[in-house]
TrEMBL record:
PANTHER family: SLR1343 PROTEIN
Designated name of the protein: Cryptochrome/photolyase family protein
Matching InterPro entries: Crypto/Photolyase_FAD-like_sf, PhrB-like, Rossmann-like_a/b/a_fold, UV-DNA_repair_photolyase
Keyword Lyase in annotation: yes
SUPFAM superfamilies in the cross-refs: Cryptochrome/photolyase FAD-binding domain
Length: 509
């Protein structure tokens, strides 16, 4: 009788067709799942994120056992828990007499290094739940001067056949962003996303998280899908009720309206309860059936087979060194406002407030509010990276790091984006209603009442002029800056320095 092998299933690998499970023999092998303090403490994760992963893991273990698998499951409060993943795997190997471990490639370089250091015969299988393998992405990237998502996205449309009519894009255009940058209207009736009452398993987890973790963020109310069945219900609910208006207002923000028409499916997708092609087909089917407009289906599909697959490819291509990127040399501490500290800025207060309450903020709040402010202020990108990884329910290193270090903070020097995503307050005013109730005046360009985004935007451009003034997408802004009267430019720079000094002192901004 051959010795059993350990089959590792991590908390973001809760898919019945995981490559590690496909390679296993249910009659011989032992599935290992472990809740360990080390994973909850390496980053101060939002309590709702910890609860989601632990509850989903426990439900998935139940499903595996019902399907005939032998499962060794370590709970966080088990007396014999070794507190780290490596310790638990060695304990389970000793108990079972196993000398080999099979796993699916993890989404963190740190975890991969820990697994490869184990005194076991470790087999790491590809995570083929993605639509573009690391090898295929590397082949696509080879020889290109620039790695641009738009060109990758078009190739993924051709590869998958999504929203294609023969070899042409449906509707004749690849990109419908021009139709997807509208302000949200309060008069639009948007059914709230489907939320799920905690069952006994989830309630037990919530009690455990309350007792063990005092991280930033509110744990209750908790309503995220924790099973495959719930995730499918949430997908159906989104396609029926919010996908029709998703496209037009996907970049919009409204005070007191955290969900708008967004899907809230990224957490379920990123832990394995849903599959990317499943979401895309549902959106495409709804369009072909005439239930949603093309711009909505295209905008949603772009986020999945475009950005999601693209940033995962970047993460795999660049490796662990990517996490240290800091091309702009920024080093300022993360402002206290990001951890719920006081701020006069209405948009920042709204984004951080709902992040604490819900473990969620949509992509424009992350990119153009919290990310934009951190970049303009020169915050250390490593600190920004750790914050995003900590506070969002859908944040895992493979997706969060390229989005933060690359797209948001330009720390990778332009690998992900051709220019920094920076803006003055005018963009936020155009896409939201936050400015109406702000402690600053977005129309003021200088002076004490001026929106900090207005001041810091020009300060950022000025201090990084040598790097960006020849960028074709930014040259016009430098010409605009140069045409401003010298005394006005001096007032702007002095105002920006005042804002930065207040940040450095820990004063309210």
């Amino acid at each position: 009788m051959p010795k059993p092998r350990l089959i590792l299933v991590l908390g973001d690998q809760l898919s019945a067709d995981l490559s590690a499970l496909r390679a296993a023999d249910p009659a011989r092998d032992l599935v290992v799942m472990a809740e360990v303090t080390g994973e909850g403490a390496s980053v101060p994760h939002h309590p709702q994120k910890i609860a989601l992963i632990l509850s989903a893991m426990r439900h998935f273990a139940q499903d595996l056992r019902a399907a005939g698998w032998q499962v060794a499951y370590s709970r966080l409060d088990d007396p014999g828990n070794g507190q780290t993943l490596a310790a638990e795997l060695l304990r389970r190997a000793a108990d079972a007499g196993a000398e080999a471990l099979i796993c699916t490639h993890p989404g963190e370089w740190r975890v991969l290094a820990d697994l490869q250091a184990l005194p076991l015969a470790v087999t790491v299988l590809p995570d083929d739940r993605f639509l573009c393998s690391p090898g295929d992405f590397a082949a696509w990237a080879e020889g290109r001067k620039e790695l641009r998502m738009e060109w990758f996205y078009r190739d993924m449309r051709r590869k998958t056949g999504l929203l294609m009519e023969g070899d042409k894009p449906a509707g004749g255009q690849w990109n419908l962003d021009a139709e997807n940058r509208k302000r949200a209207e309060r008069s639009l009736l948007r059914p709230a996303p489907l939320r799920f009452a905690p069952d006994a398993v989830t309630e037990e987890v919530l009690t455990l998280v309350e007792a063990r973790f005092a991280h930033f963020g509110r744990l209750r109310p908790f309503g995220w899908p924790v099973t495959r069945a719930q995730a499918v219900q949430a997908l159906d609910d989104f396609v029926t009720h919010r996908l029709p208006s998703f496209g037009a207002e996907q970049d919009a923000m409204l005070e007191g309206e955290p969900w708008l028409s967004h899907s809230l499916l990224s957490a379920a997708l990123n832990i394995g309860l849903l599959r990317p092609l499943e979401l895309c087909r549902a959106a495409e089917d709804a369009w072909r059936a005439g239930r949603v407009p093309l711009n909505a289906a295209e905008g949603f599909i772009r986020q999945i087979i475009g950005w999601r697959e693209f940033v995962r490819g970047i993460w795999a291509l660049k490796g662990p060194a990517y996490l240290e990127a800091n091309a702009l040399g920024h080093g300022r501490a993360l402002p206290a406002a990001y951890w719920g500290g006081e701020t006069r800025m209405a948009c920042l207060r709204a984004a951080v407030g709902q992040t604490g309450a819900l473990a969620y903020a949509h992509h424009i709040q992350r990119l153009m509010v919290t990310g934009n402010f951190a970049l303009l202020a020169g915050v250390d990108p490593a600190a920004v990276h750790q914050w995003y990884l900590s506070v969002y329910i859908d944040a895992f290193e493979w997706v969060e790091a390229p989005n933060t270090l690359g797209m948001s903070q330009w720390a990778d020097g332009g690998v992900v984006g051709s220019k920094p995503y920076v803006s003055s307050g005018a963009y936020i005013d155009r896409m939201s209603d936050h400015c109406r109730g702000c402690g600053y005046k977005v129309a003021e360009k200088a002076g004490e009442a001026a929106c900090p985004f207005n001041l810091l935007y020009w300060h950022f451009l000025d201090r990084h002029r040598a790097r960006f003034e020849r960028n074709p997408r930014m040259a016009q802004m430098y010409r605009t800056w140069d045409r401003m009267p010298a005394d006005h430019r001096a007032r702007v720079m002095n105002g920006a320095e005042t804002v930065l000094a207040r940040l450095d002192r820990g004063d309210v901004v």
